[in-house]
């Protein structure tokens, strides 16, 4: 089971720009093992739009999803910088320090920062 969980990509975000993101816990229904993943894109007008896209995809694979919170990401691929900030009105503020640790595993050569700033 853990192997299938490992197949879920940790990060799926837009390549550039400022956009909403959510931190989501994915786990096998009734299972203890989980994986926290980051999802974000400019197409989402609201944080729940991101969750509403991810959740059915994960359910098809037999996983349950729980949104742990949200915020925004400013992605500058030219300068290799990511900034995590803000909050989600519906889901609350994600633990940005957790989000940054996940992003660092994927964007190894980036400067990645976070703050509780709203803008």
Automatic annotation (TrEMBL):
One MF annotation (Gene Ontology) recorded for this entry: protein histidine phosphatase activity
Domain of life: Eukaryota
Binding site for substrate: 20
Reactions listed under catalytic activity: N(pros)-phospho-L-histidyl-[protein] + H2O = L-histidyl-[protein] + phosphate; N(tele)-phospho-L-histidyl-[protein] + H2O = L-histidyl-[protein] + phosphate
Stored InterPro entries: Janus, Janus_sf
Transmembrane spans: none
EC number(s) reported in the record: 3.9.1.3
Stated role: Exhibits phosphohistidine phosphatase activity.
Name of the protein in question: 14 kDa phosphohistidine phosphatase
Taxonomic lineage: Eukaryota, Metazoa, Chordata, Craniata, Vertebrata
Gene expressing this chain: LOC109306952
């Amino acid at each position: 089971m853990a192997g299938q969980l490992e197949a879920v990509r940790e990060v799926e975000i837009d390549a550039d720009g400022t956009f909403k993101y959510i931190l989501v816990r994915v786990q096998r229904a009734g299972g203890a093992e989980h994986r926290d993943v980051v999802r974000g894109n400019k197409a989402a007008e609201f944080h729940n739009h991101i969750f509403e896209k991810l959740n059915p995809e994960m359910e098809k694979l037999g996983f349950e999803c729980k949104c742990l919170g949200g915020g925004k990401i400013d992605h500058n691929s030219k300068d290799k910088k990511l900034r995590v900030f803000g909050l989600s009105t519906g889901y609350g503020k994600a633990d940005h320090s957790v989000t940054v640790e996940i992003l660092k595993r994927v964007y190894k050569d980036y400067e990645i920062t976070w703050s509780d700033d709203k803008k």
